[in-house]
Design a protein that fits this description.
This protein is of the alpha/beta class and 259 residues long. It contains ten helices and eight strands.
Length: 259
Protein backbone atom coordinates (compact mmCIF):
# COMPACT_ATOMS: atom_id res chain seq x y z
CA UNK A 1 0.00 0.00 0.00
CA UNK A 2 1.33 3.48 -0.86
CA UNK A 3 2.11 5.79 2.07
CA UNK A 4 -0.21 8.63 0.97
CA UNK A 5 -3.41 8.74 -1.02
CA UNK A 6 -5.94 11.13 -2.54
CA UNK A 7 -9.32 11.32 -0.84
CA UNK A 8 -12.25 12.11 -3.13
CA UNK A 9 -15.15 12.72 -0.73
CA UNK A 10 -17.43 15.61 -1.83
CA UNK A 11 -15.76 15.59 -5.24
CA UNK A 12 -18.52 14.60 -7.68
CA UNK A 13 -16.38 15.44 -10.69
CA UNK A 14 -13.19 13.85 -9.45
CA UNK A 15 -11.88 12.36 -12.70
CA UNK A 16 -9.74 15.42 -13.28
CA UNK A 17 -8.40 15.42 -9.72
CA UNK A 18 -7.50 11.74 -10.00
CA UNK A 19 -5.76 12.33 -13.32
CA UNK A 20 -3.71 15.19 -11.89
CA UNK A 21 -2.87 13.26 -8.73
CA UNK A 22 -1.67 10.20 -10.60
CA UNK A 23 0.48 12.29 -12.92
CA UNK A 24 1.94 14.04 -9.85
CA UNK A 25 3.02 10.71 -8.38
CA UNK A 26 0.08 9.60 -6.23
CA UNK A 27 -0.56 5.89 -6.46
CA UNK A 28 -3.58 5.56 -4.15
CA UNK A 29 -7.14 6.85 -4.46
CA UNK A 30 -9.75 6.52 -1.72
CA UNK A 31 -13.39 6.45 -2.81
CA UNK A 32 -16.67 4.97 -1.51
CA UNK A 33 -20.14 4.08 -2.72
CA UNK A 34 -21.48 6.92 -0.60
CA UNK A 35 -19.32 9.40 -2.53
CA UNK A 36 -21.06 8.41 -5.80
CA UNK A 37 -17.88 8.86 -7.83
CA UNK A 38 -16.47 5.36 -8.33
CA UNK A 39 -16.96 5.62 -12.10
CA UNK A 40 -15.22 9.01 -12.09
CA UNK A 41 -12.23 7.44 -10.34
CA UNK A 42 -12.03 4.82 -13.08
CA UNK A 43 -12.22 7.52 -15.74
CA UNK A 44 -9.43 9.49 -14.07
CA UNK A 45 -7.22 6.40 -13.97
CA UNK A 46 -7.78 5.75 -17.67
CA UNK A 47 -7.07 9.37 -18.58
CA UNK A 48 -3.85 9.40 -16.56
CA UNK A 49 -2.18 6.73 -18.66
CA UNK A 50 -0.76 5.08 -15.53
CA UNK A 51 -1.11 1.28 -15.69
CA UNK A 52 -3.92 0.07 -13.43
CA UNK A 53 -1.68 -2.45 -11.68
CA UNK A 54 0.48 0.43 -10.38
CA UNK A 55 -2.46 2.09 -8.59
CA UNK A 56 -4.06 1.17 -5.25
CA UNK A 57 -7.79 1.95 -5.30
CA UNK A 58 -10.17 1.74 -2.36
CA UNK A 59 -13.93 1.82 -2.03
CA UNK A 60 -16.35 1.25 0.86
CA UNK A 61 -19.83 -0.08 1.46
CA UNK A 62 -22.21 2.22 3.34
CA UNK A 63 -24.50 0.99 6.13
CA UNK A 64 -27.68 1.31 4.04
CA UNK A 65 -26.33 -1.62 2.01
CA UNK A 66 -25.25 -3.88 4.89
CA UNK A 67 -26.17 -7.57 5.00
CA UNK A 68 -24.53 -10.49 3.21
CA UNK A 69 -26.51 -10.66 -0.02
CA UNK A 70 -26.89 -6.91 -0.50
CA UNK A 71 -23.20 -6.41 0.20
CA UNK A 72 -22.30 -8.97 -2.45
CA UNK A 73 -24.42 -7.07 -4.98
CA UNK A 74 -22.89 -3.75 -4.00
CA UNK A 75 -19.31 -4.96 -4.24
CA UNK A 76 -19.97 -6.21 -7.77
CA UNK A 77 -21.62 -2.88 -8.65
CA UNK A 78 -18.58 -1.01 -7.32
CA UNK A 79 -16.22 -3.15 -9.36
CA UNK A 80 -18.33 -2.65 -12.49
CA UNK A 81 -18.42 1.13 -12.02
CA UNK A 82 -14.66 1.35 -11.59
CA UNK A 83 -14.25 -0.69 -14.77
CA UNK A 84 -11.10 -2.68 -14.04
CA UNK A 85 -12.42 -5.95 -12.62
CA UNK A 86 -11.21 -5.52 -9.03
CA UNK A 87 -10.44 -3.20 -6.13
CA UNK A 88 -7.20 -3.24 -4.19
CA UNK A 89 -9.02 -2.55 -0.92
CA UNK A 90 -12.69 -2.66 0.05
CA UNK A 91 -13.91 -1.44 3.44
CA UNK A 92 -17.01 -1.48 5.60
CA UNK A 93 -17.64 2.25 5.89
CA UNK A 94 -18.79 2.28 9.51
CA UNK A 95 -19.99 0.08 12.40
CA UNK A 96 -23.53 1.53 12.19
CA UNK A 97 -26.53 -0.89 12.30
CA UNK A 98 -25.29 -3.40 14.88
CA UNK A 99 -23.21 -6.54 15.28
CA UNK A 100 -25.24 -8.94 13.12
CA UNK A 101 -25.15 -6.66 10.08
CA UNK A 102 -21.48 -5.88 10.61
CA UNK A 103 -20.49 -9.54 10.64
CA UNK A 104 -22.67 -10.54 7.70
CA UNK A 105 -21.30 -7.67 5.65
CA UNK A 106 -17.76 -8.56 6.57
CA UNK A 107 -18.41 -12.16 5.47
CA UNK A 108 -19.39 -10.77 2.08
CA UNK A 109 -16.06 -8.93 1.90
CA UNK A 110 -14.18 -12.11 2.80
CA UNK A 111 -15.94 -13.98 0.00
CA UNK A 112 -15.36 -11.15 -2.47
CA UNK A 113 -11.66 -11.47 -1.70
CA UNK A 114 -11.81 -15.23 -2.30
CA UNK A 115 -13.54 -14.57 -5.63
CA UNK A 116 -10.91 -12.06 -6.79
CA UNK A 117 -13.14 -8.97 -6.73
CA UNK A 118 -10.99 -7.33 -4.05
CA UNK A 119 -7.39 -7.93 -3.00
CA UNK A 120 -7.56 -6.66 0.57
CA UNK A 121 -10.43 -6.01 2.96
CA UNK A 122 -10.90 -3.80 5.95
CA UNK A 123 -13.08 -1.52 8.02
CA UNK A 124 -13.55 2.16 8.72
CA UNK A 125 -14.54 3.96 11.91
CA UNK A 126 -14.15 0.72 13.91
CA UNK A 127 -13.09 0.55 17.54
CA UNK A 128 -11.26 -2.41 19.03
CA UNK A 129 -14.60 -3.77 20.22
CA UNK A 130 -15.90 -3.97 16.66
CA UNK A 131 -12.77 -5.69 15.41
CA UNK A 132 -12.97 -8.15 18.30
CA UNK A 133 -16.35 -9.23 16.91
CA UNK A 134 -14.60 -10.23 13.68
CA UNK A 135 -12.04 -12.26 15.60
CA UNK A 136 -14.75 -13.96 17.69
CA UNK A 137 -16.60 -14.88 14.49
CA UNK A 138 -13.49 -16.73 13.28
CA UNK A 139 -12.94 -14.41 10.31
CA UNK A 140 -9.66 -13.01 9.06
CA UNK A 141 -8.41 -9.76 10.53
CA UNK A 142 -9.00 -6.61 8.47
CA UNK A 143 -5.96 -5.37 6.61
CA UNK A 144 -6.89 -1.74 7.30
CA UNK A 145 -8.89 0.42 9.70
CA UNK A 146 -9.55 3.89 8.27
CA UNK A 147 -10.42 6.46 10.95
CA UNK A 148 -10.45 10.21 11.47
CA UNK A 149 -6.93 11.13 12.59
CA UNK A 150 -5.14 14.45 13.09
CA UNK A 151 -3.50 16.15 16.08
CA UNK A 152 -6.84 17.35 17.47
CA UNK A 153 -8.41 13.85 17.35
CA UNK A 154 -5.72 11.22 17.83
CA UNK A 155 -7.91 8.23 18.81
CA UNK A 156 -5.03 6.65 20.72
CA UNK A 157 -6.85 3.53 22.05
CA UNK A 158 -7.93 2.54 18.53
CA UNK A 159 -4.51 3.28 17.05
CA UNK A 160 -2.73 1.26 19.75
CA UNK A 161 -5.14 -1.64 19.27
CA UNK A 162 -4.61 -1.70 15.49
CA UNK A 163 -0.85 -1.41 15.76
CA UNK A 164 -0.77 -4.31 18.24
CA UNK A 165 -2.78 -6.39 15.73
CA UNK A 166 -0.68 -5.18 12.78
CA UNK A 167 -3.71 -3.61 11.14
CA UNK A 168 -2.70 -0.66 8.96
CA UNK A 169 -4.20 2.66 10.04
CA UNK A 170 -5.38 5.06 7.35
CA UNK A 171 -6.09 8.66 8.36
CA UNK A 172 -9.04 10.44 6.85
CA UNK A 173 -9.58 14.17 7.40
CA UNK A 174 -5.85 14.57 8.11
CA UNK A 175 -6.01 18.29 7.28
CA UNK A 176 -8.43 19.23 10.08
CA UNK A 177 -11.08 21.22 8.24
CA UNK A 178 -11.27 24.76 9.56
CA UNK A 179 -8.31 24.64 11.93
CA UNK A 180 -5.28 25.23 9.72
CA UNK A 181 -4.84 28.65 11.30
CA UNK A 182 -3.99 27.21 14.73
CA UNK A 183 -0.96 28.92 16.25
CA UNK A 184 1.02 25.68 16.65
CA UNK A 185 0.50 24.73 13.02
CA UNK A 186 1.43 28.22 11.83
CA UNK A 187 4.59 28.22 13.97
CA UNK A 188 5.75 24.82 12.71
CA UNK A 189 4.96 25.74 9.12
CA UNK A 190 7.14 28.82 9.42
CA UNK A 191 9.91 26.88 11.15
CA UNK A 192 10.12 24.30 8.35
CA UNK A 193 9.27 26.63 5.45
CA UNK A 194 6.19 24.54 4.70
CA UNK A 195 2.47 25.15 4.80
CA UNK A 196 0.18 23.99 7.59
CA UNK A 197 -1.29 21.15 5.51
CA UNK A 198 2.18 19.76 4.84
CA UNK A 199 2.96 19.84 8.58
CA UNK A 200 -0.21 17.83 9.28
CA UNK A 201 0.55 15.28 6.59
CA UNK A 202 4.12 14.93 7.86
CA UNK A 203 2.82 14.36 11.41
CA UNK A 204 0.58 11.59 10.12
CA UNK A 205 3.42 9.92 8.25
CA UNK A 206 5.76 10.07 11.25
CA UNK A 207 3.04 8.48 13.39
CA UNK A 208 2.95 5.54 11.00
CA UNK A 209 -0.45 6.39 9.51
CA UNK A 210 -1.45 6.49 5.84
CA UNK A 211 -2.92 9.97 5.30
CA UNK A 212 -5.65 10.57 2.72
CA UNK A 213 -5.76 14.34 2.11
CA UNK A 214 -8.48 15.46 -0.28
CA UNK A 215 -8.46 18.31 -2.75
CA UNK A 216 -9.75 19.11 -6.20
CA UNK A 217 -7.21 21.88 -6.81
CA UNK A 218 -4.15 20.85 -8.84
CA UNK A 219 -1.83 23.10 -6.83
CA UNK A 220 -3.00 21.62 -3.50
CA UNK A 221 -2.90 18.07 -4.85
CA UNK A 222 0.71 18.70 -5.82
CA UNK A 223 1.82 20.48 -2.64
CA UNK A 224 0.33 17.80 -0.39
CA UNK A 225 2.99 15.39 -1.67
CA UNK A 226 5.93 17.70 -0.89
CA UNK A 227 6.39 16.26 2.59
CA UNK A 228 9.43 14.01 2.24
CA UNK A 229 12.16 16.65 2.38
CA UNK A 230 11.76 17.62 6.04
CA UNK A 231 11.17 15.99 9.41
CA UNK A 232 9.37 17.12 12.54
CA UNK A 233 11.69 16.88 15.55
CA UNK A 234 10.72 15.64 19.02
CA UNK A 235 9.69 19.10 20.20
CA UNK A 236 7.52 19.57 17.11
CA UNK A 237 5.84 16.22 17.64
CA UNK A 238 5.29 16.93 21.34
CA UNK A 239 3.62 20.23 20.49
CA UNK A 240 1.28 18.50 18.07
CA UNK A 241 0.57 15.64 20.49
CA UNK A 242 -0.53 18.21 23.07
CA UNK A 243 -3.34 19.40 20.77
CA UNK A 244 -5.36 16.20 21.24
CA UNK A 245 -8.93 16.89 22.38
CA UNK A 246 -10.21 13.33 22.13
CA UNK A 247 -13.73 12.91 20.75
CA UNK A 248 -14.33 16.66 21.01
CA UNK A 249 -11.57 17.22 18.48
CA UNK A 250 -13.35 15.30 15.73
CA UNK A 251 -14.42 17.32 12.68
CA UNK A 252 -16.52 14.55 11.06
CA UNK A 253 -19.17 12.06 12.20
CA UNK A 254 -16.55 9.69 13.75
CA UNK A 255 -18.99 6.87 14.74
CA UNK A 256 -16.38 4.73 16.54
CA UNK A 257 -18.52 4.35 19.67
CA UNK A 258 -21.45 2.65 17.97
CA UNK A 259 -22.93 -0.23 20.04
Amino acid sequence: MPVIGLGVYLNDECAGACEVALREGYRMIDSARYYMNEAQVGEGVRRSGIPREQIFITSKIYHHDFGYERAQECIQESVDKLGFGYYDLYLIHSPVTGKKNRIETYRALVDAKKNGLVKKIGVSNYSGKHINEIIEAGLELPDVNQIELHPFCQQRPIVEYCQAKRIAVQAYSPLVTGQLDHDVLKRLATKHNKDEAQVLIRWSLQKGFVPLPKSSRPDRIRSNTLVFDFELDRHDMDALEALDRGEEGAVTWNPVDQP
